[in-house]
Amino acid sequence: MECNCIFCKIANGEIPSATLYEDEEFRVILDLGPASRGHALILPKKHAANLFELPDETAEKVMVLAKKIAGRLKEGLGADGINLVQNNGEAAGQTVFHFHMHLIPRYDGDTVQVTWTPGTLTDADKEEILKLF
Ligand code: AMP
Ligand code: ZN
To answer: In this structure, which residues have their CB less than 5 angstroms from ion ligand 2?
Structure first.
């Protein structure tokens, strides 16, 4: 565990949290500053700062777990949709540098913002980016 990582402490039970789910590798908690009712966070118990540090096996399991928790939230809270949000790096809005996946229940007509202004894919960008893969 990385010292002084708050999500390591929460994930491993050193700091109490509102836990919705726990297994050997993950803890799912309610976000303390929720974007909406039921906003939850999936935390791996083993520290990885972000997606790039996350082992592949953990990454695979995160999506399966997200599907399970999202279904429960949707049904239990009567949500009309769910956003999965996962920020990597300050530029992307990450504020806690221990990988986490947000599950944000959405309700018809809510004012939650998980949005951007669409730009235009230029031919030059398209060519350049396609060459990278
Ligand atoms: P991000 O901006 O993706 O790094 O998200 C960090 C999230 O962690 C925010 O939604 C915070 O509200 C949430 N958060 C920070 N500290 C805690 C905590 N102690 N318990 C639960 N949620 C937290
Ligand atoms: Zn950590």
So the answer is: 2, 5, 7-8, 47, 98
